[in-house]
Design goal:
CATH class of one domain: Mainly Alpha
Helix content: over 70%
CATH topology of one domain: MetI-like fold
CATH superfamily of one domain: MetI-like
Structural class: mainly alpha
Number of helices: 12
CATH architecture of one domain: Orthogonal Bundle
Distance between the termini: 70 Å
Shape: flat
Radius of gyration: 32 Å
Strand content: under 5%
Length: 314
């Protein structure tokens, strides 16, 4: 390759000199590196704080489960689930009537609270701007924060006293009333997540508004509604204060709705406050069974949540 006379000789790429970074560029690069190191440090610290917060959040549950298993597992046996409470001074016995009574009360409360709560939630979602909906939503939030013992006193005043005695029916009404605001608000939120296009498509096909709400909207939101309902059931399953004023408890086998009935929270309360070691041991076992029931309901609710978001199926 010949060079043109009067021109500078060509230089190879390897022979070119890289321009040196100026002082301001080096300072900017150092500031950037310091900023990145500081951000990495802050990120590690905050991730550690979140892990610590998560551990502290589940630590009480872990400690409760550990203590219940340690104190109550030794008292669990077949007799605990099939035998009646033993008389004072007699060893053994079980909580068969309390377990069945808990199932009866939860079923009765669900029969009262779920239809009312789901219907109210559907109305709030479909008529969210109406005056009645605004008042109902506000009162549901207030009722949701009402102490359970207040609900028990209310049921005692308006149900137990007029009926002339304690009964499973009054306890079921008190627990069902506690379920209503939870189911109402969860149902409303789940229905509001249903796309508006589904409603419009059904109405365009000639469906009435009522039929659209019941067959399209409600069916689409059903997994989420089931989840909220199970959470409400799990909450009332362990309530004790309303039962003290309504069900009262019963050491004998009884599933009649117009008579006092036993329940696991009541039997745990009576045994835990007794001076007998055998009864206190059975109270720990009853608490373990009760938290097991709540845990099973929570797992079912979790599965329903996974199905709601398409994580549990195909």
């Amino acid at each position: 390759m010949t060079s043109v006379p009067g021109s500078a000789p060509p230089t190879s790429p390897a022979g070119r000199h890289k321009p040196h970074a100026t002082r301001s560029q080096r300072a900017a690069a150092e500031r950037t590196m310091r900023t990145l190191r500081r951000r990495r440090l802050i990120n590690r610290v905050m991730v550690g704080v979140m892990y610590l917060a998560a551990l502290l959040a589940i630590l009480p549950l872990i400690l409760i489960l550990f203590h219940l298993v340690r104190e109550g597992a030794s008292s669990l046996s077949l007799d605990f689930f099939i035998r009646m409470p033993a008389p004072v001074g007699e060893a053994g016995g079980g909580m068969a009537n309390a377990i069945v009574g808990t199932l009866v009360l939860v079923g009765l409360a669900s029969a009262i609270g779920l239809p009312v709560g789901i219907g109210a939630g559907l109305y709030l979602a479909e008529h969210r701007r109406s005056r009645l909906a605004l008042v109902t939503r506000f009162l549901s939030d207030v009722l949701n924060g009402l102490p359970s013992i207040v609900m028990g006193i209310f049921a005692w005043q308006f149900l137990v006293r007029p009926m002339g005695g304690f009964s499973a029916y009054s306890a079921g009404v008190a627990l069902g009333a506690m379920m209503i605001p939870l189911v109402t608000r969860s149902t409303e939120e789940m229905i509001r997540l249903v796309p508006v296009s589904l409603r419009e498509a059904a109405l365009a096909l000639g469906f009435s508004r009522a039929r659209t709400s019941l067959t399209i909207v409600l069916r689409t939101a059903l997994p989420g509604i089931v989840t909220g309902s199970l959470v409400a059931v799990a909450r009332i399953a362990g309530e004790t204060a309303p039962l003290l004023f309504t069900a009262f408890g019963n050491q004998f086998w009884s599933i009649a709705l117009d008579e006092p009935i036993d329940a696991l929270p009541l039997r745990i309360f009576y045994y835990a406050t007794s001076p007998y070691d055998d009864w206190r041991a059975l109270a720990w076992a009853g608490a373990l069974v009760l938290i097991g029931i709540v845990l099973v309901i929570s797992i079912i609710a979790r599965y329903a949540t996974r199905a709601r978001h398409g994580l549990g199926g195909d």
